[in-house]
Amino acid sequence: MSKLRFEISISLDGYVAGPNQSEEHPLGEGGEQLHEWVIGLAAWREPHKYEGGEVNASTPLVEESQSGVGAVMMGRNMFGGGPGPWGDDPWQGWWGDDPPFKAPVFVLTHHEREPLTLGATTFTFVTDGIESALEQAKAAAGEGDVHLAGGADVAGQYLSAGLVDQMQLNVVPLLLGDGAQLFEGGTGAGLGLEQVLSVEAPGVTHLRYRVG
Amino acid sequence: MSKLRFEISISLDGYVAGPNQSEEHPLGEGGEQLHEWVIGLAAWREPHKYEGGEVNASTPLVEESQSGVGAVMMGRNMFGGGPGPWGDDPWQGWWGDDPPFKAPVFVLTHHEREPLTLGATTFTFVTDGIESALEQAKAAAGEGDVHLAGGADVAGQYLSAGLVDQMQLNVVPLLLGDGAQLFEGGTGAGLGLEQVLSVEAPGVTHLRYRVG
Prior knowledge:
Distance between the termini of chain A: 15 Å
Oligomer: homodimer
Number of helices of chain A: 6
Strand order of the largest sheet of chain A: 5-6-4-3-7-1-8-11-10
């Protein structure tokens, strides 16, 4: 049975992006520090077509999170896009000519758009809600899991709806103080969590929970 | 040199107490779940005069946090007290006839009160601010460290003032959704944190950071 797995990097004070997200600062001001632990890893660099990189205690978790994924879901801001509709010359997103996903990606948005294929990745834009997106993603995933990549808003909707099966927070030693909070306004309050593992690694601690 | 160590149990969504704190619910509604990981441990039960208890991966950290402490600081709500002044028949706090601290305790409050000795613990009430309280606690601690026990408000003041040397968060798999947030309103934003250790234990993960 295909699971919905959610994974995100988060500051110790609960932010998954810094303030003032923009084309210049897609992760918000200071938000890129949330991902420093991963961009130096060979396990991340290889699928993103960078050379070299380290192997450390995060490596098995990064490899694991990339394997067994049959489909990916994300919000419109994570795909890459401003607040308005797509327009006549819609932007191709943050992910370049050959995105690293290698699996169908379902983008939650309020604005219809034809599917977009870049390299080996096809982005399908879903406008009829989170249940529909999950249904389509699970159908596309076959035996694989569905990886919910974020951002905070979409992840919060899935958490609050009780649709997430597994949640992994990569907790970074950083106090951002402002930005997008994953658990703002009581997101997921009362969900049952079972701690599955905690792994200390350089510059990050990985916390994985089964969500009930 | 005496260090200021801060340690607190916190839900995954950042709450250190549940909503509606009262005499009936000193930790707020649901807040007692934040401490379930510790109250079953022999290392906690013995100084609190309960019998039995378990030994697990949390044990060395609990023992360590109790050793080398020369003085304790806490806020007035953590000592035990409502919002008003102390009154003619002031309450003796949450901690019983023989509190577990075995070290001088400095209580931050806006209301003057004579020192209170219960068993082997003397509570000194400090009304002239957090720097004064820390100075008095360090003087009392001698070679030992000062343990900042909380709650969220007092801890936030020390964090924001850059006075904390070490912070340990005991992260509990719980989404409270409401209550007292440690990092509300940008507390400690921009402080340098260095991850010192992360320890997975039953029902909790301990995250320790060097601050500043």
